[in-house]
Amino acid sequence: MIVSDVWKEMGILDACLADDLVEPMFDFWRSQTDNERLAKKGIAGYLQYRKRDVAAQLLLALQRFSQGIHLSKDELESTAAVEVLFSYHISVVNDVTSWDKERRAEREIDAQGSVVSNIVQVLSDDCGLSPENAKSVLWAMCEEWSKMVDAFIAKRVEEGCSDSLRKYLDGLKMQMCGNELWSRTTFRYNSSGLV
């Protein structure tokens, strides 16, 4: 009932942008019970799976809704590549910063049938790296993705883009930065306050 009420109120504010949330929301909900969660994956497969699991498209649709950003179909399609980088970045930042907590929980709970689903483990297994070395490699990957996003935005601005598209791209970058800062400093993942 609460979700329905919120959806109706969002539709009153902006029916078009509220409708853009429907598919990403249901895709995220489906991903939470998908058997794919338990399947062993390589790095590329894991990143593909996490695009749904981390709700990247939902986060971006919520950004457009909250900022009142209306993009044309062509504008939205033109951002597909940078949205992939966004999903990789937020997924990997989340995984790297939550790794130690997840490992502690796995040891303490020792739940039957539980599977740690984290790219640190995937990279360790695929490349024979220790978890600490895998985390270092993953931080470097995040830095490169961040630079690629910056380059994409700069190119779009240089080529000329609408104010709405520029606002959307700037917001996407701010979400990445905010997620990294929060993930590095939240007590949810680390009691020291910094990773």
UniProtKB/TrEMBL annotation:
Q: Which InterPro entries match?
A: Isoprenoid_synthase_dom_sf (IPR008949)
Stated name of the protein: Aristolochene synthase
Native organism = Colletotrichum fructicola (strain Nara gc5)
